[in-house]
Amino acid sequence: MNWREYLKKNALFVSVCLLIGIIVIVVVGCLLSPSIFYDNWIWKYYWGPVVSDATGHTVTYNGVAANEGYTLVSEITYGIILIGALYGIYQLLKKLKVSIDWWFCLALMPYILFGPVTRVLEDTNYFSVPSVYFFISPFIYFQIAVYALVFLFLGISIQKQSVKKQIISSVLLFCVFDFVYVLLWLGDVSFGLPRIDPFVFVVISLFAFIPLVYMFVKKHCCTLNTVLFSGGLLFLLPSLYLIGRWIVGDQWSYSAGVRFDILLLIVGCVAAIAFGVYLVSKTFSKKQALAVYRKPLNLCMIVGHLVDGLTSYISIYDPFHMGLPLYEEKHPVSNLLLDVWPPLFPIIKLLMILMVIAFFDILYKKELKHYGRLVNLLKIGIIILGLSPGLRDLLRVVMGV
Q: Of 266, 271, 284, 393, whose CA–CA distance to 320 is shortest?
């Protein structure tokens, strides 16, 4: 057996060993040479920027300064972690025989939106220490991954039950979720201010239950995607409620003013461009090379990265002189494109997504025919990379934070 066959048969074992090896090296390095491993590496590039983000200013530790935002080192590291995580998730979903398609992406959408929404709440100084650290990237994404995996396994388990047991399990799930929150409220456990009243929280959770009720009434069953979607709403809807309170005037920190005009401008531009792509694809539907651009997953990739590109360009440079406060780009690669020519950033983003779609669905369609699950998972990852930072930036501008 050569090394390639061994790696293929023992991929999980090798991956776990590699991860443990890296952790051991880092721990030993921090113990033997903390100034190199911790002060000038972990603190400077990873943990320091998180603390700086939470405090809102430059922080120092043993004379090493750390600033809010990303560096080239941290971006490369997080990119490697993302690739490894996607591969691990792909293997898990493949083993569980979970279909990765547009409906699965839709089921994940509450989790995808939960990230940027809670990041904006962190920007408003809603969360208190130490809980605030869990709502700053990259930790917010680890948190979301845990939520999604928990409801994924719950969905698989509930899907296998009889209809009667599915209803009981679903009701029990939501009751437990609300009961835990009430206990936290009574115990005066606070993640931030203002806290959501228990009655309001229970009412909000009922809206998350609606997709399950619909499936039971219309389809007389409960699917994995429905449980996953409703589970994500349990986390997303309370966060959206807090965003709504801020927008209507119940603000707990400084705001430069709510800007609905920016929301309409960016949403309008994104919708117009996405509709234009769809219209061209629809008009020339006989040409396979263009028909693929109106697929839901592909359009979602385009929308996600347009939101990111246009929001960054408009919020940083204020090209229409709308009186926006000064914002800055945290990603060094994005900053490079913006410095060359500001409109280049959203243009390059759009062109890159169009090229990615062509790569997956046109140029290498036959070669990737048997890897549809992996291709769609990569597309979902691309959606997250665009929509998450883009929506956060958009909400920040709209909320004036």
A: 266
Tell me if 338 sits within 8 A of 312, measured CB to CB.
yes
Cβ contact 229:213 at 8 Å: no
User: Quick one: which of 193, 172, 190 has its CA closest to 181?
Assistant: 190
Residues 244 and 293 in one domain: no
- 114 and 220 share a domain? yes
DSSP state of 64: E
How far apart CA 208 and CA 193 sit, in angstroms, is 23
Q: Are residues 92 and 146 in the same domain?
A: no
Mean pLDDT of the chain: 87
Domain hosting 27: range is 1-98
> Which of 98, 117, 135 is the endpoint of a domain?
98
Contact (CB, 8 A) for 390 and 311: yes
151 φ, ψ to 5°?
A: -75, -25
Domains of the chain: total? 3
Among candidate residues 253, 278, 311, the one where a domain is terminated: 253
220 and 304 assigned to the same domain? no
Torsion, Cα of 170, 175, 180, 185 (10° steps): 140
**Cα-based distances in Å from 133 to 50, 127, 209, 399:** 7, 9, 29, 21
Query: Partners of 64 in the beta sheet?
Result: 61
Amino acid sitting at position 278:
Y
**211 shares its domain with 274:** no
- For residues 212 and 17, give the distance between their C-alpha atoms in angstroms, rounded to a whole number: 40
Q: Indicate if 17 and 30 belong to the same structural domain.
A: yes
Distance CA 239, CA 234 (A): 9
281 and 388 within one domain: yes
Per-residue tens of pLDDT for the chain, all 401 residues: 566 676 667 666 777 777 788 888 888 888 888 888 888 888 888 888 888 888 778 888 888 888 887 777 887 888 888 888 888 888 888 888 899 999 999 999 999 999 999 999 998 989 887 888 888 888 888 899 999 999 999 999 988 888 888 888 888 988 898 898 888 888 877 777 678 888 999 999 999 989 988 888 887 788 899 999 999 999 999 999 999 999 998 898 888 889 999 999 999 999 999 999 999 988 877 777 788 999 999 999 999 999 999 998 898 888 888 888 877 766 666 777 677 777 888 998 999 999 999 999 988 888 888 888 989 999 999 999 899 989 999 999 999 98
